[in-house]
Amino acid sequence: LIQVKDLFKIYEFGDIQIPALNGVSLSIEAGEFVAIMGSSGSGKSTFMNILGCLDVPTRGSYFLSGNAIGSMSRDALAQLRNQQIGFVFQGFNLLARTSALENVELPLIYGPTPARERHHLAKEALVSVGLSGREDHHPNQLSGGQQQRVAIARALVNHPSIILADEPTGNLDTKTSLEIMQLLTQLNEEQKITIILVTHEQDISTFTRRVIQFKDGLVLQDRLQHPK
Amino acid sequence: LIQVKDLFKIYEFGDIQIPALNGVSLSIEAGEFVAIMGSSGSGKSTFMNILGCLDVPTRGSYFLSGNAIGSMSRDALAQLRNQQIGFVFQGFNLLARTSALENVELPLIYGPTPARERHHLAKEALVSVGLSGREDHHPNQLSGGQQQRVAIARALVNHPSIILADEPTGNLDTKTSLEIMQLLTQLNEEQKITIILVTHEQDISTFTRRVIQFKDGLVLQDRLQHPK
Ligand SMILES: Nc1ncnc2c1ncn2[C@@H]1O[C@H](COP(=O)(O)OP(=O)(O)OP(=O)(O)O)[C@@H](O)[C@H]1O
Ligand SMILES: Nc1ncnc2c1ncn2[C@@H]1O[C@H](COP(=O)(O)OP(=O)(O)OP(=O)(O)O)[C@@H](O)[C@H]1O
Ligand SMILES: [Mg+2]
Ligand SMILES: [Mg+2]
C-alpha cells in the first residue's frame, strides 16, 4: 500500500543544510496499525506530511496504492488525498471562524455528498470522539483536548482507507486517550483501515502492531509486536 | 501567594450555560510544585488563565501576592503579570512571523533590559531547553516539540517567580520531557520558583509535590506527595 525508497527531505537554512529525513526506506501493508516514535525533531511529522501527500521529498520515491506520487499532477494528488487519507495534524489546523461541525464536514465539501448527509456524518464523527453537544462551538470555545478531538473527527468523516495521526492524544487525559485508541483499534480491526500514528507515549504505542523508531531523520528500529 | 475563593467561570452559549469552573477554592504557597490533572474539558486551562491574570472569573476572588486581582486596573495587572508570571500556553501561542529568539525575547521587550542583554538571556533560555542552533528558525520551521520548547523558554526568560505551564510536555518524547521536568525541578528547588503545571501524564505528575485533580469545574482531590 505504502512504499517509500531512499526518502530525503533536506531544508536549506541560510548556508547550512538540515536533513529532516536522511534516507528512509520502508513499506506498510494495507490494514496495518503502526506507531511512529522518536525524539523531538527526529523527522516524524516530516515523514507523515510526505505520506499524506502534503509535502514533497527532496529525493526518493513514494508509491501509494501503486501510484507514483512524485509524478502525479496537483489535481490528481488532491483527489487521491481527499479520497484515501484522513490526517490528524500535530497542531490540529482547525478553521478558527467556523464551528466544530463545519470543521468536521470540510473533507466532504468537495465530494458528491449532499448537505444533509454531510451534517449527519459530521455529527456522527463528533459523537464517536465524545463531543456531542459541542457541534456549534468554535475552536476558541473548546478546550485543547476538545479541539484535538475535532481534528480527529475530521480525519474520520470521509471514511478514508488510511488514517495518519500526528500525536492524536497529546492533549488528552488518560481516560479520553483510551477511548480514542479503542476507536482507532475498532476502525483498524473491523473496517481494515490502515492507521499510522505518531506518539511519544509508550502506553499509546502498545495498541499498535508495529513500532517504527526514528532518530535524526533515519529509521533506527522497526519491530512487530502484539497489541495489548 | 495564590488564593482563590469560590471561583466560577460560566460561559453563556446561546441559551445554555457552561460552567467551566463551578466553585473552586484553594491556596498555593510560594515555592510549591503543583500538578493539575483532570479529564479533557474539566476546567484546567480556564483555571490557569485566571491564575495568569489573562481571564476574569464570573464570580469569586483571586488574591496574588496579597493583591486583589479583581479590583486592579488593566495596566497594573499587565505589569504584575509581566513581572511575576511566566506562562506556557497549551497551544504555544508563538508569533509566526518572528524567529525563535525574538519570540523568547518578547517578555523582556517592555522592561528596562537593553537589547544586547535581551539577546543573551533569550539565547540562554533556548540553550536550557535544548534548542541552541535554532534561534533564527521561525515557528513553521520547527517541529511540534521544538515549538513547545520555544514557548517554555519564553516563559523562563523573565526569571518569573511563578511559572504556569499548560501541558508543557504534550508534544515531547520521553527523554526530552525528562530534561524539561529536571529543568523545572531545578528552578523550583534552587530558585524557589512556584510552578503550577497542567499535565495528563502520570509520569510527569510524579515530579511534583502536590496533585490537584479537577472534574467538571470542581476540585475532586487535592493531595501531597513525595516527588520521585
Ligand atoms: N468561550 C467558551 N465558550 C463556551 N464554552 C467554553 C469556552 N471556553 C471553554 N469552554 C468550555 O469550558 C470547559 C473547560 O475548558 P478548559 O479549556 O478549561 O478545559 P481543560 O480542562 O483545559 O481541557 P483539556 O484537557 O482538553 O485542555 C470545556 O468544556 C469547554 O468546552
Ligand atoms: N521549514 C523548515 N526549515 C528548516 N528546518 C525545518 C523546517 N521544518 C522542519 N525543520 C526541521 O526538521 C527537523 C524534523 O522536524 P519534524 O517536524 O519532522 O520533527 P518531529 O519528529 O515531528 O518532532 P516533534 O516530535 O517535536 O514533533 C527538525 O529539526 C526541524 O527543526
Ligand atoms: Mg512532529
Ligand atoms: Mg486545557
Please characterize this protein's 3D structure.
- Two copies of one chain form a homodimer.
- Chain A is of the alpha/beta class and 228 residues long.
- The first copy, chain A, is built from seven helices and ten strands.
- In chain A, the strands form two sheets. Chain A has a six-stranded mixed β-sheet with strand order 6-7-8-3-9-10, with helices on both faces.
- The relative contact order of chain A is 0.19.
- One adenosine-5'-triphosphate sits between chains A (11, 13, 18, 20, 38, 40-46, 90) and B (141-146, 171).
N-to-C series of helices and strands of chain A:
EEEHEEHEHHHEHEHEE
Question: Percent of residues of chain A in beta strands?
Answer: 25-35%
Task: Note the quaternary state here.
Answer: homodimer
Strand order of the largest sheet of chain A: 6-7-8-3-9-10
- What count of helical segments of chain A does DSSP give? 7
Mean pLDDT of chain A: 96
Taking all Cα atoms into account, the compactness measure Rg of chain A is 17 Å
Biggest β-sheet description of chain A: 6 strands, mixed
Overall SS class of chain A: alpha/beta
Could you tell me the number of beta strands of chain A? 10
Ions, cofactors and other ligands present here are: adenosine-5'-triphosphate, magnesium ion
Question: For the terminal residues of chain A, how far apart are their CA atoms?
Answer: 25 Å
Sequence stretches where pLDDT stays below 50 over 5 or more residues of chain A = none
| Secondary structure: helix percent of chain A | 25-40%
Q: Largest interface, with Cβ-Cβ < 8 Å?
A: A-B, 34 and 34 residues
Query: What is the 3D shape of chain A?
Result: globular
